[in-house]
Design a protein that fits this description.
single chain; BirA Bifunctional Protein, domain 2; 12 helices; 12 strands; binds phenylalanine
């Protein structure tokens, strides 16, 4: 008996190790451990042995069964891994291969600028956040310290959604098309624990339409919540952002005291432009080289304690700054377009002229607007 076991062991383990495929391995398993398998048969002989004999043979047969079980398992994983590797290799797609023929259109300047913003702010440690365009009155106004009676509500030319009953829970009942990206500040503070560093680009809506206003437009919001945040952090961040965005080191900022219900103090930020070859160019110090002036680019300020409180945070512990900026306006200033309405006309000639190649991704090393 012992002999038989010894003779079985090596060839069996070798056969398992060499099994070329999963079905061959399964055949070996059935032949050895299956109902009629050789090892199963051996185990059955234990019952007929004398106790002394069983004490000697038992551990040997069980030992063989364990060795075979283990070897089968090891070979099975190896074969499965090899099958997976082969499949991954055969189904591989080289995404870096240049695409031939066909046209993929161009990237709209608004999408391009959103990509540039994400790239610039990612480098500063900001994540991208989003929120719904159909927003509640509470997120769009109330939580931002704009109560019902506040004149700022009238200023926003809000599109209210019809058919929604007033009353009930203010947070869920009354809906508007968001008039700015600032409600994403609220959603982010309610969702995440500080420290927070996000930008939130997206569509916004106001009932307004002329050469510089469209009912739908784009904004990007910025929000930082942390301990010990000051106006200095805000100024540095905006300066760094605008220099990277306009790809010039000589960007000059002017912060003007302003008012937003959700920031205190608040500042509107202008960038200087100069005249080069009869054209307005962002950058340089206005007035110094005769000519030029200031362009308003964004609104900003230190997050109002009431806003921090509305989001369930303690304003004595957490401070922050926020800013909001028109993306369409940024695109117009950087790429020299003059009529905002053309952004949304869908005119293929305009897109061909101002659009960006779909495979040129903005990078800080290559130049975000390259
Ligand atoms: N939400 C303001 C607007 O739409 C801009 C802003 C954002 C101002 C954040 C201050 C802070 O005009």
């Amino acid at each position: 008996m012992s002999n038989e076991l010894e003779q079985m062991r090596e060839p069996l383990l070798a056969a398992i190790a060499d099994a070329p495929a999963l079905d061959a391995l399964e055949t070996i398993r059935v032949d050895t451990l299956g109902k009629q398998g050789r090892i199963t048969q051996l185990l059955k002989t234990l019952g007929k042995m004398s106790p002394e004999e069983r004490q000697v043979e038992g551990p040997k047969i069980h030992g063989l069964r364990e060795a075979v079980t283990e070897a089968l398992g090891a070979r099975k994983s190896a074969l499965e891994q090899a099958a997976l590797d082969a499949r991954l290799a055969s189904e591989r797609l080289d995404m870096t291969l240049p695409v031939e023929g066909g046209s993929f259109g161009t990237v709209h300047p608004v999408s391009q600028v959103m990509d540039e913003l994400a790239e610039i702010f990612a480098d500063l440690g900001f994540a991208v956040a989003t929120g719904p365009e159909v927003e509640t009155d509470w997120h769009n106004f109330t939580a931002l310290n704009i109560p019902e009676t506040h004149p700022a509500r009238a200023m926003h030319d809000t599109f209210y959604l019809a058919g929604v009953e007033a009353g009930g829970d203010e947070r869920t009942v009354r809906r508007v098309l968001r008039t700015h990206t600032s409600p994403v500040q609220i959603r982010t503070m309610l969702d995440q624990k500080p420290p927070i560093r996000i930008i939130a680009p997206g569509r916004t809506y106001r009932s307004d339409s002329d050469a510089t206003h469209t009912p739908m437009f784009h904004q990007v919001e910025g929000l930082v919540i942390d301990k010990g945040i000051t106006l200095g952090h805000l100024k540095w961040t905006l300066e760094t952002f605008l220099k990277a965005f306009f790809e010039r080191d000589d960007i000059v900022l002017r912060l003007r005291p302003s008012y937003f219900p959700f920031t205190e103090p608040s500042a509107e930020v202008d960038v200087g432009y100069t005249i080069e070859k009869g054209k307005r160019v962002i950058g340089g110090h206005p007035g110094r080289d005769g000519g030029g002036g200031w362009m308003e680019v964004l609104g900003s300020g230190m997050v109002h304690p009431k806003v921090i409180e509305a989001c369930g945070l303690d304003p004595n512990e957490w401070q922050g700054f926020a800013f909001g900026c028109g993306i369409d306006r940024l695109a117009m200033l950087k790429y020299g377009m003059d009529d905002l309405r053309a952004f949304f006309d869908g005119d293929i000639r305009w897109l061909k002229h101002y659009g960006f190649a779909s495979l040129d991704v903005p990078t800080l090393s290559g130049g975000v607007g390259a």
